[in-house]
Amino acid sequence: MPLEAGHFCGQPNQGLYDQVCRDPICRVLYIDLSKRRFWIEGRPDIFQAGLGGVGAGIRLLEEECPVGADPLGPENPIILAVGPLVGLFPMASKTAALFKSPHTGNLGESHAGGRSAVAIRMAGYGAIVIRGASLTPIYLVIDGEQVRFRDASGLWDVPDSGTVAKAIRNREPGSGYRTIMRIGQAGERGITYASVITETYRHFGRLGLGAVFGSKRLKAVVVAGKMSLPVTDRRAFQQIYNEIFKHATESEAMRKYHELGTPINVAALNAIRALPVRNLQANTLPEDQVEAITGEDLAQHYLGRRVACTHCPIACIHLAALRTPHPKEPYFFKTSMISYDYEPIFALGSMLGLVEPAAMLRLIEEVDRVGLDAMSTGVTLAWATEALGKGLITTAETDGVQLAWGDYTGYSQAVQKIISAPNDFYRALGHGAEYAAARYGGQDFALAFGGNEMPGYHTGPGGYLTFLTGARHSHLDSAGYSVDQTALKKGETLDPQQLAEALLREERWRQVLISLGICFFARGVYTMDIVQRALAVTGQDWSAEALEQLGADILRRKHAFKQREGFNPQTLRIPRRILEIASAYGTLSEEFLRQAVQHYMEQV
Amino acid sequence: MAKRLAVVDADSCVGCQACMFACARRQGVAGLALARISVHSAGGFENGFEVSVCRACADPPCARVCPTDALLVREGGGVKLRPDLCIGCQSCQQACPFNAIFWDAAVNKPLICLYCGYCVDFCLYDVIRLEEIEESQHASRSWSLLRPTEPRPI
Predict the structure, then answer these.
(1) For the whole model, what pTM was predicted?
(2) A88, A169, A313 member nearest B18 (Cβ)
């Protein structure tokens, strides 16, 4: 039962209050953009049952999102939720966003780090629910108990989302204690794979949260705060903290993220023939072509700085320092700091045959500045390039742009045209590869799964089963690519049932991690035992069984939401291309994948 | 000799704020409200970070402006707060040229580094260090130039 405005934690159930509500995690900030008002409710019911993060978020989504909601209508809510370990323990740095996706038409869920999670927690909330739509462009400033509605009409339609961030940064207080989540032009225009950018280099990247912001004329959300959080036993707190910190920084558990970062995957996946190249017409690049875009080479020639999300000593964010000469003036350069991760390197590099590192970095930056999701953009442009080559479309559709593998100029122009949408073709591209292929043909090589463009793992059946069955159609849902690589190393083969079970186990546990606020890169550190002991410090007593049940329950709720909104596992499209090009694991069979999907769906 | 926390290389700071959380933890709580050190971007993450923490001045301006003498100057430099004398006027905060004095809103009193060095163990990138205050650092108190003792030969 919602409480009256201004009250919190006043539930009649005193036992519940004592257990959860000593901690401000149970406070939910509701903001109605249509009425420009806000209030705070105590929701220990939600946070006791679902911990936080996606566990709380999916329950709020069930409450807030009407059946059949228009994803770009005022009825689609934005829910930002953090977990109880955020603000207490390292690598608990993630915010889960829940919404109805304008890209897939069903579950929208995206996770981001930066300063977002700690700022929400330090402002005193477990979740923020944004309802309605503003008549005019605005941005929100949430500073502890205060919410301010600021005019953003001057910030609308600024070509570079970085400029918007600078303007807000200079006008608003709280440097060091705040997050500035903002959209670019892609979000303003409802490109269904528009991202929300936070702290310049982290994103709610996938499934179109940026478009949902744009549909509400919500340009940015600033959240700031600093507060203390109680612990039950300070000695136990320091002890378990030190254990986690030591494991994260001194063991192998997170070393790869720490040193080369996720781009370490480029060479590794290329070597096992799992790197999608030129719209997956090949699974590997020759040594001399791949070298310049590997994590090793990028670090050697471009790495200029490493930065971290709040409360994460690993600092996996690698920034390339790219020097660009002035077009006319001699001896004049500017230096841009561009974040490079494996996924943008795959999507805007190998997938487009763009292996010249400076050009690839520039394209990554341009995609980011307009606020598009790098993966969906790259895979959609890869489809368009092949469609143009095969004559399914002509330069009449591309508005004169010559899309060709490895040609930076064409891709750079196409990115701008996705934003400016001069014709129907670019409007279709703004809905992704699956939508565009349904209109123009080439579905066999439109590499989207469940409507979401593929990530860069042509590893084997596990990878694709994750893309097909994962509740977000994200490689991070159940990491089947990792199951493939482990099986390859061990020389094992899993049958469809075993594979489905392995992925389900992983996906369920990941629901628990993100409900706590923990980054998946720290999954090797946050074991069941550590999670239980860390929760005990916050005053919450969770058995292993209860946590496992929670993971399974969250996943069931997510699938129930998907199916409620029309997702049908029977009609999942498997593009022929993935069956034609051998994976690291060998040639894939559609029947195997269909069986595995069925096992997964039966057991979920 | 007295110790102080030195920011030895802010350009290597990744902005993780592990030092800030460590500071609060040292005081028995989680969160950031009690942090006596601050890390913030130098105008966006692309520009790196600035670290604000008390540098233990030999002649601290914060102590000089305190109307109730609540900030005692330590032998060797730096200050120690006497909360019983502090009236929460925030003059010290305004006087600090490094913005290194933070505020405990709950009790309306300043938060200043305790020079314990607990945070140092959580900085993986050697940005901060606990160091002894050298005798030579006191020389700066006289504001004198370094001149040769012998006159220049003609």
Answers:
(1) 0.96
(2) A313
